[in-house]
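Our preliminary data section would be incomplete without showing what the modeling component actually yields. Below, a chain of 386 amino acids is followed by its predicted structure, encoded as tokens that our downstream tools consume directly.
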Amino acid sequence: MVGAGVFYVWAPAAALAGSWLLVSLMIAGSVALVNAVTMAQLALHNPVSGGAYQFGRKYVSPRAGFLAGWMFLTGKTASAAAIAVIAARYLAPDYATILAVGLLAVFALANLSGLRTTAGMSIAIVTLVVAMLVAIIFQSGFAGGNAETSHFGGVYGVAQAAGLMFFAFAGYARMATLGEEVRNPTVVLPRVIVGTLVGVLVLYAVLGAALIGNLGVGALATSVAPIADLAPDSWRVVVIAFASLASLGSLAAILAGLSRTSMAMARQGDLPIFLARVWPRTSSPAVAEITMAIIAIVLAVLVDPVWLVGASSSAVLSYYAIAHLSAIGQPERERLIPRVVPWVGLVACVALVATLPWQSIAVGGVSAALGLTIWGRVERRRRNHS
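Predicted structure:
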């Protein structure tokens, strides 16, 4: 969960929310918590891969399930492009676009060759990154200095910033899919999800206070590398290394997830069947891997990372909105949480999407329309052959 987003989203969010940035953070964290609890309830009674793609098909409709999967692909492809650019900006700001293209190509090839980031590697990376962030917070004095902190971005700006800050919580839903691997999951899983999210939220809140107090809202809003700017100059190389490590770990996992989700949807008949082709040598979904990487490269070259983050949040929040619809449709015997919780989550997700920059909403809308068009054609072809 503590990945590339924490090294980037502070700047564009501060430009929108001003000194009320922490309010935006709390809104984003609260929505993430409701989403995660809803996903836990769904996953507990449906221990299958695919997340809201499968939940939507079962509890809402095949069209809704497809749309959830499609928006997941849209959001995570935008995430991959954004993360590549974020890592590149830390490593080589003057050559960020070229380096981002190279990173996407290299990691796609690595996935094709069968290389994977293990759970142990992911835990080690997160542990190191959290330790570094805590060290930076302590050396900064939390929030000291004479930085300007009084700017208020307005209610709409705070809401927009919350949509962008949601990007910093990416990855929490993975915890919700562990129902089969946990003893007494109805008790343990909610505690783990809530505890982890609250811990991350506290870390982000203290970090945000340190950024505002030491850099000031104006400097934070224009910073290319806010965490590096907060750290002492002598730490800059270490911060860049850790930011890159966190970003590249996230990038590898996202690209692998994208290709496998595409392959699963193709095998289900919801996407063109050629996306299900695998490379026999490594059993990797080669066509899907290459296709997703090419799309991410095009986005990294053509789209500013701020809009990529917004587009990712727009699509992923839409994905969770369908998850909430699915939870609302679950029978009473499957309920772990009151029915009002997914209703609150649904309204919150829709509200955050509505407040995002119009470019991000447009990308999400165009993507949804394109996806439903593809689904309609595939569905008609399937009916004609049945």
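Residues 4-50+82-304 form a domain with the Amino acid/polyamine transporter I fold (CATH 1.20.1740.10). The longest helix spans residues 236-268. Preliminary results of this kind motivate Aim 1 of the renewal.
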